[in-house]
Amino acid sequence: MSVHPMLTPFDCENAIIEDYYCKKCDFQTELTVFFKEHVSRYHSVKKEDPGALNNEYRIKNYFCETCSFLTHSAINWLQHVRACLINNEKTRQDELVWHHCTQCSYKSKNKSGLRSHLISRHLSDQDVTWYNCGQCEYKTKFKSTLNRHVITHHLDEKYIKWYNCNDCPYRAKTSCDLGKHIMYKHLDEKDIKWFNCDMCPYKTKRNSYLKKHVIARHVDEQYIKWRKCKVCPYKTKENHNLKSHMNTHHLDERDIQWCECKKCPYKTKYKANLKAHTRMCHLSEEKIRWYECQKCVYKSKYKSTLNRHVITRHLEDKDVQWYKCRECQYKTKTSYELKKHVKFKHLDEKDVKLYKCEKCPFKTRRSFYLKRHITTQHLDEQFITWYECKMCEYKTKQKSNLKSHINVSHLDEQDIKWFKCEKCSYKSKYKSALKSHINACHLTGDEIKWFKCKECPYRAKYSSHLRSHENTRHSDEKDVKWYECNQCMFKSTVNSNLKKHINIHH
């Protein structure tokens, strides 16, 4: 293997660079040039005489011509250039040598990556050397992960070495987090190194996301190491999903470390959810970074929501990766919708975790519906964020209601996306209304999924009708929540019925 002539005699990669300490202050550095510059600037030359600084101590930049590497140290530069030349020579001479896993289709460019894979994926828990946190119950298979955990969760603020972003006020506790921030927020599209899937058009900015994608989409079932819940039948391909499941469904209430909003009563088990809540509810318009659709006027505060919008609204059916239900003919464009379908249509009542309201008998299968219920029914006026229409006096507690109002009342005819029935001339501005129409008018008895009452022979095509029936027929009078009209004696257990009554009679 040929190496550049000027680099042949250089062989001090393993040498330890000793720090230089200033005798007059606490300054220390590994580089002579920084030390000389410090002494010259602060201990030898008057500050008011900037021209007196000797050119000998000026800091020089050393950069690599084959990549974007930049340093002030000639030693580091020589080491880097030598490594670059050797790597380039290797790449030119022969193809990359892959290290393959003998138990699955995983492969890595280096042995350390394969070792990490074997430990994390194929080594049994009893054979693993666990690294335990001394301040909480956290444990991990890797020492580096434990160090990052301690820095992130337990290290006192005054001992943290902050990594600051040069382009915005963001700062991070680890260089890894800062690198991710720069990649997602400030790096130009052309400068990004994309990781592409060999089996589908998927691409991502992070290698770890590509690995997760391959495991989730393309690895055979027999090679998957399932993470199983010890308390219920739940299983998942990803360890972090299992942790989230345990925290959500099986963690004792007193052991939960709640993340609470400082501006309203909202609280959550996850820091990411608190950030999302703050961005959604309390961030001013000018501080929001919007993700805009290039094919329509849609915009979102979240990139994931924009991606879902593009898939569901603008992607042609032939380009869509469909998610199909194993129990029925249902299929959807997103895994999120498939999970909702399975949860609502095929899971038994005993296998579903119900979210119950603490102030009334309301219960639901989705935490989002419970939050919406609390916001609309029980939240104090002072904590409510009102969504107001800019074209009329309408206001609502739910952003989705405001969108619906604008679509119904203020959108031009040519801008409306109609949902049309394939069997008749019916059309609607709402997909849910089209589904209701199909259920009511075009489904035969065998095709309808009936919602049956457990107390009597009553059955309904809609779960909301069954709930209304149970509230009026089988609940105690004191447990029923009535929606009463302010102008007459009318009352109903269904809020929509009250609205219809007001529109018709008042």
Automatic annotation (TrEMBL):
Q: Tell me the ranges covered by the C2H2-type domain, including all copies.
A: 131-159, 163-191, 195-223, 259-287, 291-319, 323-351, 355-383, 387-415, 451-479, 483-506
Q: Name one GO molecular function term.
A: zinc ion binding
User: Per its UniProt record, what Pfam families does this chain match?
Assistant: zf-C2H2
Keyword vocabulary terms for this entry: Metal-binding, Repeat, Zinc, Zinc-finger
For this UniProt entry, which residues form the secretion signal?
Answer: none
PANTHER family, A to Z: C2H2-TYPE DOMAIN-CONTAINING PROTEIN, KRAB AND ZINC FINGER DOMAIN-CONTAINING
The name of this protein is C2H2-type domain-containing protein
Species of the source = Zophobas morio
Lineage, highest ranks first: Eukaryota, Metazoa, Ecdysozoa, Arthropoda, Hexapoda
